Amino acid sequence: MLSMAPSGIMLTGRRCRVMARSKKMGEMEMVKGLRRLATVLSLTAMAVLMTGCSDKLVVLNPKGEIGKQQLDLIVISSLLCLVVLVPVLVLTFYIVWRYRHKPGQSAKSAKYDPTWEHSTKLEAIWWGIPIVIIAILAVVTVKYSYKLEPSKPLEHEAKPIVIQVTSLDWKWLFQYPEQGIASVNYLQFPDNVPIEFRLTSDAPMNSFWIPQLGGQIYTMSGMEMKLNLIADEPGSYMGMGANFSGKDFGKMNFTAKATSQEEFDDWVKQVKGSSPALTKEGYEQLALPGVSEVETFSSIPEGLFEQIVHKYGEHQHGSGSSEHQHGSNTEHAASGTSGSMDGMTAEEMEAMNHEGHANHE
Amino acid sequence: MAQSGNHSVANPAGHDEHEGHHDLEALRMMGFWIFLITDCILFGTLFATYVVLHNNTAGGPTGAELFEMPGVIAETFILLTSSFTSGLAVLSMNRGDRKGLIGWLIVTALLGASFITLEITEFVKLVHEGAAISTSGSWSAFYTLVGTHGLHVSVGLVWMISIMLQLGRHGITSVTRRKVNIISLYWHFLDVVWIFVFTIVYMMGVM
Amino acid sequence: MLDNIKDFASDFFVTGDPLIYGADVAIVLTMIAVVTALTYFKKWKWLWQDWITSVDHKKIGIMYVIASLLMLFRGGMDALLMRTQLAVPNMEFLSPEHYNAIFTTHGVIMILFMAMPLMFGLFNLVIPLQIGARDVAYPFLNSLSFWLFFFGAMLFNVSFVIGGSPDAGWLSYPPLSELSHSPGVGQDFYIWGIQISGIGSLMTGINFIVTILKMRAPGMKLMKMPMFTWSVLSSCLTIILAFPILTVTLALLFIDRYLGAHFFTLDSGGNPMMYINLIWMWGHPEVYIVVLPAFGIFSEIAATFSKKRLFGYKSMVFALMSISLFSFFTWAHHFFTMGSGADVNAFFAITTMLIAIPTGVKVFNWLFTMFRGKLSFPTPMMWMLGFIPCFVVGGMTGVLLSVAPADFQFHNSYFLIAHFHQVLIGGVAFGYFAGLYYWWPKVFGFKLNEKIGKWAFWLWNIGFYVCFMPQYFLGLMGMTRRVSSYGWDKGWYELNLTSTIGGFLMGIGFLFQVWQILHSIKFMEKDTTGDPWGGRTLEWSIPSPAPMYNFATVPRVSEKDAWWEEKQRIAQGLAPTPKPQLEPIHMPKNSGIPFIMSACFFVAGFGFVFDWLWMAIPGLVGVAACMLYHSFNYNTDYYIPVDEIKRTEAAAGRAV
Fold first, then answer.
1. Spacing of C-alpha C232 from chain mean position
2. Strand ranges for A135-262 from DSSP E
3. Which stretches are transmembrane (chain B) (predicted)?
4. Cα gap A123→A116, rounded to integer Å
5. Rounded distance, CA C399 to CA C412, Å?
6. Looking at the predicted structure, is the pLDDT value of residue A232 above 80?
7. Mean pLDDT highest for which of B130-139, C33-42, C294-303?
8. Domain map of chain C by residue range?
9. Measured between CB atoms, does C233 come within 8 Å of chain B?
């Protein structure tokens, strides 16, 4: 009955979590210190390993709050691992060297004790130390799991900008519902403004990743995922489809450009002025398998993104009918679809949808 | 996977006059128990799949609309009875009564065959009513789960017939005794699986 | 008519790529050469009687090893093709389609058709000897398992020249692997190849559990079993619990493709995420299935070449068993980024980290087995020593990956690729190599050349680090797995080139191993002692190679390391344990059924792949007929008379 487990476990994780964040000052200090340590460590390591490469190591060179916190976590966990790794490696070399068999000089050679096979004290040490380290790491991981839950809105004074992401066979479509424009394989947004990515797919599953801003998330048909990121400074960041989705998935690269709010507004204006409109037929064309250059569109069909989600979404919701009774606003679709992950019965889904509403109201 | 089960029993045997043979038969019995564990996991996975998908009807018919409980209840009684008669077969064997053993096995096999007939009739009817395996995720899971059980029963039937022939040829020996014990165990196992099918698929489906 | 045939042929055979034509020619030539040689030397009968129909675990083990080394060659070629394609930016050596097919087959072959059979080979070669048994519990089933693996692997490999290879990744996630996105037959080859060999794996799992639990020599209590035997037991327990899930998952995918069902489709209520969950519920335990026996091998080798008892026996057993158990509760760490929420991710992150604890303990126990030992460094020990740092680093990067929120930055990148190659090559491949070198003299009766072996070892080791260390950094540079080419602007050039060089170093290391084997056959250094390493367990107490009945008399065991203690007693001038009288030995007869039945499975699978029921149905009927034939056959065993045992033992230089 092992196989029954996932549905139950998955269920608990799916609740829409809108939790207030609290950050103590002391913690901030510690995080800053760690970050400095991280920079020093990674830079030293890089300097030794490959001079001049450090800016290429995008994961270690984040330009957004989420990416920075993920780097903190990478550094903390690496340090904890090194606590075990280094002694083990030293011990290995020492033991192999010390106890190598030297036929000529048996008198001076190291102690040989062929029946020594147990020591409660020693074994307690090496059961104990990993347990302690894993316990620390587990606490840190759990804390960060909630802190960095991708669907959680960022705490920021600016109102987030919404970007709807669709992975297609083998290109990315980005829609800006608030601005009424769209782009293909190119992303632009203001810096220092939280971005709320809503993601889906009209093709096999892919994964949306801009390493310098933060970690990736899968894009899947029939559901709307959420990823909240922010860019702390202007720049052009590498973005890509990280999950294999067929023939030309390797060409699903895009540039994510963070600019000042003014520049972003100018870009929107320019797109509105000079680009063609995206029609439904145009979208159908775009969705056909193939690669694409960078494109921009001055307008988008009403509700296109929701239609893409629902194209596969209806049946994902179990009985489906309950969905319609509730009417369909985007928010509902969001909580419903992200809830339809897997292993849910209609009843569970129903309960969830209500819960989702309660949260939104 | 039924094949592997078939095989763990269909191993080299013979010469029951030699000592050490009792051990070999016990060994095969143990192997069959382990096979049953793997079969449990197989059905467990199928049940899990069914639980996940059973509401994904994609606007098509639901089980509640189409299941006809009288037929299903008849199937259930037939299979439960066959489990009982396979137990009687083992009791006859333990008394050394070959005729009784083969007789009860024939009754068991006939009951099994009527179970399969009823099930196929049910499937055909469902398909005519617009619920085929390709109709929706829900029906895919239904046919696969119930069909896998049916396939197990069918394999069991062929196997039971082959054991009856072997009993006719060799009589009750340590080898045929082990084979009868194993098929009976297998039959009880399928009965238990069916109780789960009946509860989870049909009862909870129409409720 | 001719046009029809042409059309059929161009669909049926894979065409259009010079690499494949080259391979076609090579395959045809090899087959002609093999057939000619067998005919010329009149070896057909020998092949059939001594090998194909054999139910002897030692011969089956050898066949497993040969098949898996051939598969290692093919998987390795795939790897080198990929590394060549990635060596420099914008390379046009392989098209994206071809690249996709190659990484798919590389993964499937290395895990399912290389690691698994090599592991089963070692089980077969060692376990009965190590526990003092004359064979496995079900010799017929054992032969059937091998042939199912063999024909499953052949069915999978045939896709290279017929119909087209699968190209949806080694785990074939739907909807990409569904008919809607992979209409070709490659996916069907994938499903049937793995399904057929998977049935064999499951039966091997059952077989060895019963063998270990029921066929040990008298006196060998569970807590006196050699550590390799323990590791095989834990691995087999994991097999029987995990493989049925794979069987179901692949069957459901097949039903989707063949009958138009909707388990994992995008439309009509399918749920692709269910596949991802199911496949990893098998897939994660699977990696522990292959690594646990490697832990056992290292335990044997550490003790033997330290001339010292294994340190912390009870801890080791407990660690093995807890790893088996925990391996079933970590599957979701393969998709932390699927949006399951913080609760789920935190749960699976912690279960994953927990596995690091028993694994770490094992490393310390190996180290302290060597502590106060008398270490010598022949090739098996070299692989053991190469393993420890490699596996520890790989394990640590695994812990980094288990930190769910950080995994969002590692997932799908080369960091992940580097990690799992480090544990699978550093742990599994090094482990099995160590095992092969260690038990080679027992199996074949001669030792392998040490000097060439050390060359191979260093090439593999250095090649490994040169190949995979840069990949960690490539991952941190944002290079994602499965991309078939990249531009100059990415800055990934230097590290990729380095990595490719490392890959080829390992390739050369493999060639050295082949040379080592050929060289050692030619200048054979016979092992007449039966105990060339100063072994500790029962397999070293009998002649090399072991006689067909293994033990002339069943040994009595009273402690761990039974053979070592016996040698100690003899060295102290005490009398050896008295042996019982010789008795006729009960043996199973050879059978052609496993081969024929598996061939029928192959035919059925091939028929289903091409949707040719005229072929699939007779295949299945053949399978059923074989089973019934075997069930009705009561003449399956015989006795080896005492005279013959005496003659065999005398020929091996043993007094009886």
1. 13
2. 161-168, 171-176, 181-184, 186-190, 195-201, 206-210, 214-219, 225-229, 235-241, 253-259
3. 32-53, 73-94, 101-121, 141-165, 185-205
4. 13
5. 16
6. yes
7. C294-303
8. 42-580
9. no
Nearest CA in chain C to A253: C486
DSSP reduced 3-state for C466:
helix
B50-67: pLDDT as tens digits: 999 998 888 889 888 899
Q: How far apart are CA B76 and CA B62, in angstroms?
A: 21
Radius of gyration of chain A (CA): 26
User: Which amino acid, residue C325?
Assistant: L
Going by pLDDT thresholds of 50, 70 and 90, the confidence category of residue A37 is low
CB-nearest to A77 from C313, C354, C399 is C399
A318 pLDDT band, cuts 50/70/90, is: very low
pLDDT bin (cut points 50, 70, 90) of residue B113 is: very high
**Mutation to test the B interface, candidates C211, C241, C268, most B Cβ within 10 Å:** C268
For an interface test with B, the pick among A4, A10, A315, A317 (most B C-beta atoms closer than 10 Å) comes out as A315
In the stretch 164-223 of chain C, residues with CB closer than 8 A to chain B read 199, 202-203, 206-207, 209-210, 213-215
Mark yes or no for CB contact B41/A3 under 8 Å: yes
Tell me how close the Cα of B106 comes to any Cα of chain C, in angstroms.
19
> How much of chain C exceeds pLDDT 90, in percent?
85
Q: Which residues of B touch C636 (CB under 8 A)?
A: 11-14
- Residue B136 at interface with chain A, using a CB cutoff of 8 Å: yes
Interface test with C, best of A84, A117, A207, A317 (most C CBs within 10 A): A117
3-state SS track over C117-150: HHHHHHHHHHHHHHCCCCCCCCHHHHHHHHHHHH
Which helix (H) or strand (E) element contains residue C585? strand C585-588
Element (H, E) at B45: helix B21-53
For residues A347 and C452, which has the higher predicted lDDT (pLDDT)? C452
- Kindly report the nearest CA distance between residue A267 and chain C, in angstroms: 25
* CA distances for C373 relative to A140, A164, A357, B168, C302, angstroms: 40, 64, 67, 64, 10
Amino acid A27: pLDDT: 54
Peptide bond into C380 cis (omega under 30): no
Of all residues in chain C, the one with the smallest CA distance to B8 is C141
Q: What is the mean pLDDT of residues C17-30?
A: 80
Token pair of A173 as six digits: 């479509």
Residue C491 in tokens: 């800055």
Please report, in angstroms and rounded to a whole number, the separation of the first and last CA atoms in chain A: 39
Decide if pLDDT at C20 tops 80: no
Q: If you classify domain C42-580 with CATH, what class do you get?
A: mainly alpha
Cα B116 from chain centroid (whole Å):
10
Length of chain A: 361
Checking if the pLDDT of A343 tops 60, the result is no
Domain B31-206 has CATH 1.20.120.80: yes
Could you give the CA distance from residue C233 to residue C213 in angstroms, rounded to a whole number? 8
Most confident of A356-360, C42-46, C381-385: C381-385
- Taking only the tens place, the pLDDT of each residue in A69-78 is 999 999 999 9
Give the residue-averaged pLDDT of A271-284: 94
Distance from the Cα of C509 to chain A's closest Cα (Å) equals 24
Count of B-C CB contacts under 8 Å: 164
Statement: residue A180 has pLDDT above 90: yes
Residue that is written with structure tokens 């057993």 in the block: C317
Q: Do B31 and C138 touch (CB under 8 A)?
A: yes
Q: Give B18 to chain A, closest Cα distance, Å.
A: 42
**Mean predicted confidence (pLDDT) in B2-13:** 38
Beta-carbon contacts of C36 under 8 Å, excluding residues fewer than 6 positions away, are none
Question: Do B190 and B156 contact (CB within 8 A), yes or no?
Answer: yes
Nearest CA in chain C to A74: C406
